[in-house]
Amino acid sequence: MAETDRIMTGAPADASYGRRLLRMGLAHPLLWPLLTLILLLAGNSLFNPGFLALQWRDGHLYGNLVDIAHRAAPLALVSLGMTLVVALRGVDISVGAVLAIAATVAAWTIGYVRQDGLLPLALAVTAALATGALCGLWNGWLVVGAGMQPIVATLILMVAGRGIAQSISGGQILTLYYAPYSFLGNGFVLGVPFSLFVVAAVFTLLQLVLGRTALGLFVRAIGHNPQAAHVAGVRARVIVLGAYVFCGIAAAMAGLLVSSNVNSADANNAGLLLELDAILAVTLGGTLLGGGRFSLAGSLLGALIIQALTTTIYAIGVPPQVNLAVKAVLVFAVMLLQSPVCRAQVRALLRAGVERRS
Amino acid sequence: MNAAAHAAVSGMSDRRPWWHRPAYVPLLATLALFIAMAGAGGVLYHGFLTPQVFLNLLIDNAFLCIVAVGMTFVILAGGIDLSVGAVVAFSTVLAADLVQRHGWHPVAAIALVLAMGAAFGAAMGLLIQRFRLQPFVVTLAGMFLARGAATLISVDSIDVDHPLLAAIANLRIPVGGGNMLSVGALMALAVVAAGAWLAGATPFGRTVYAIGGSESSARMMGLPVDATVVRVYALSGFCAALAGVVYMLYMLSGYSQHALGLELDAIAAVVIGGTLLAGGSGYVLGTLLGVLVLGLIQTLVVFDGELSSWWTRIVIGALLLAFCLLQRVFRKKGVSP
Lengths: 358, 337
Hints:
Oligomer: heterodimer
Shape of chain A: globular
Helix content of chain A: over 70%
Radius of gyration of chain A: 22 Å
Strand content of chain B: under 5%
Radius of gyration of chain B: 20 Å
């Protein structure tokens, strides 16, 4: 934000309106993630001309773009939760474990109720979301109540979480034969995957709550300077606790989507390394890891970038293991771009270059 | 600066009896826990309290012990290193690949692996220190990079059957009474001894404690903060590479999916060993105790035979929680220097 303000007020008086607009656009936080995504997709369509094509078949929308969005849905949900936590100077590395617990709870509930109709579905969704909220409450309490560092507090659930999930499932992969549940991860509404509606609903809700109420301001205030926010009378403890609870619920929603997509819940492998992808998505989207500045739309874009990257790597036939190395290079690049020290050094280098030329 | 770091830097001018010092209390708690668990095992299971069971703790957890010693320094300096498990995997793959597929002599391969581990750690340390990046994110990316690089070398597991390496792997050193230790376990003990000396008796160790206590104070005291931070991560990378060599000897294979989640176990061992996660207070010997406690939990689960393996994770999580809460209590009580 400060960046934008500086550029807006510091623009030379004789600059034309168009140039000013261009400068504002260049400074827009969503520009880089959007550009990355477009470049990725464009590169793909060069390689495979039919890549961007969308088809309408049997009343459903088909195509790589739909596929990428659909597969990115669980990560997008978790990233939205993570964005809030990171904006408040925290981090939640237990999301993968929470996803596994919620998925297992949902599968266990359906197996336990054993009925036709929609009752098991309602119970499973409620139980999974409640479990996610409980996990978030636990993390939040450790951070706010016990005063632990966020990474340590959530490490505990990350270590124990999969053990808990396995103790619920009895160490087995729970397989589901229940059509209504399968709809969550595989169904279509109005020709579009149901999962996209879930992401859209959560995103719109967050955007409304953070954009239309003072909550967004409070979150930024706490993230920028917790002491100042406290002195100003912001109830930081409740807000931080709420962010962790929301992150837990978001992870549980992702767990529902993931497990219903494959009709089974795997306590060991569901959502493995998801926490890393979510942090990567949040960073790619322009949220500062130090807190304060965040962008929900950016995190959505980040999740899409990661999924597009995975799809690309599969599509061009490179061994999927390269994915990890590519992601690592991406994180390093984004981190350096975000680092004020690095920016200052690059700027100094550029200035030196200009002076030498003139 | 917190009390423990203060005591460590100013040469133990603490007047409290030693068992009341905040830095010792978690250590004693861990020792008590270890003795209680071993005692319970002895009462519950036949043949538990034999020396070889405890020597096996060292043999089976040698790599964890080596990684955890490196991690102790990182955490003492107020950082964290999430890349160690991936570096262990990378080291096993690189060493196995060089020896088995390219005909390198094992000594040369191991030397290269150790140098690469140290260089990788130093590079991450440089990023953290020069660009003020968060250690947690940098080492997370390092974790991706090391695992990715390992899979790029070889997707499949590489079996190691070089005669020299196999001989070292199978070598058992008698320690009296018909009990044995492996080369890896001896290496782990050597690393713990070296780590304890480095932390307790060298300018480097004192600087690490000072940085963990308060980086700005350490800077004002004129300590070489920047160089030390880089060296701490280099040390952790070196330890991870060494652990990779030990792990390769232990499994006699190199595989990119080796040591998944080892970083969590290492952090758990360090915390259970009484090191403050905020940095500045803790002991390398405590980390050894932490590793032994983790190993003992696994051994108890194995001896029981009926408990499922997932209880290990839950118990480790619970112990982590207990020790973190314990740290909070003692930090609140013992802060006034």
